[in-house]
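Predict the holo structure. Ligand: nicotinamide-adenine-dinucleotide.
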Amino acid sequence: MLKGKIALVTGSTRGIGLGIARALAAQGANIVLNGFGERREIEQIENELEKAYNVRVMHHPADLQSPDEIYEMVEWTRAQLGPVEILVNNAGIQYVAPVDELPRDRWDAIIAINLSAAFHAIHDALPLMKRKGWGRIVNIASTHGLVGSINKSAYVAAKHGLVGLTKVVALETAGTGITVNAVCPGWVRTSLVEKQIEDRAAQSGVEIATAARGLLIEKQPSQQFVSIEQVAQLVVFLCSEAANQMTGAAITMDGGWTAQ
Ligand code: NAD
C-alpha cells in the first residue's frame, strides 16, 4: 500500500516507534529510523526489516533536543532516499513528579522532545510534502494530550501542545493532499511505562504484576494494555487512502480511558 514511500519515524529504535517503523515497512515504505541505542542492535533492526520487507532502512542518530540535528536528519533523509513523505513524530520521554518538585531541566527536556521536536521536523519536512502534493504527518500524542493526570505537568502540557499543533498544521494544509493527525494511546507496555510500574511496585511494596494491574484499574476501563502493534496499525490506516479526509483529528486508542 505504501510501496516506495519514504517514512521518517522519530524515536524508533524501540517501543511504539519501532512498531510503527515495522508496520510501515511491511506496507513497502522505506524507513529512516531515529533514536538512541547500541550501534550493533540498531544495525540488526535495519537488516531484519530490510530482509523481511524488501525495503531500505537507515538510521539517523539526531538528538531531538537539537533543532539543528533535526534539520540535518530531514536533509540527510532527502539526500539518501528522497523527501520525507510520511513523518511520524513519535519520540517522547516522561518524568513523574509534583509540579513544584519537577526539576527544571526535565521540564525543558520534555517540552523539547515531546513537543518542539515535532514542530521542527514539520517545519523542515513540510515544504517538500507541499511540493509533492502528498504527505502524512502523524503525531504520537497520548490520552495525556486530552486529559490530565497528577504528577505529569510537563508531559501533559507537551502532549496537549502536540494536539494543538496537529490541529493548526492540519488547517494550514487542508486540501493539499497532506493530512496531519494525532494518535492518543492509553497505557502501552513499553520501557516508558515499565519504569512507572517498577516505581509503583517499589513505592507500594507490591509485585510488578500487581502494580501493572493497579495502573490499569486506575485509568483504563478495559483493564488491558494497548499493544504496540495496534497503535502501529492505526498509523498505517492514517497513511492509507481511506484516511484522505481525516485531518486535524486526535484519535484515541485507550481502552475507554478518556470516555470516563
Ligand atoms: P520508549 O521509551 O520505549 O521509546 C522512546 C524512543 O524515543 C526510543 O527510541 C528513544 O531512543 C527515543 N528518544 C528518546 N529521547 C530522544 C531524543 N532526545 N532524541 C531522539 N530520540 C529519542 O517509549 P514509548 O512508550 O515507545 O513511547 C513512544 C511515544 O509514545 C512517546 O511519545 C510517548 O509519549 C507516547 N506514548 C506512550 C504511551 C505508553 O503507554 N507507552 C502511551 C501514550 C503515548
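Strands lie at 6-9, 30-34, 57-60, 86-89, 135-140, 178-185, 250-253. The radius of gyration is 18 Å.
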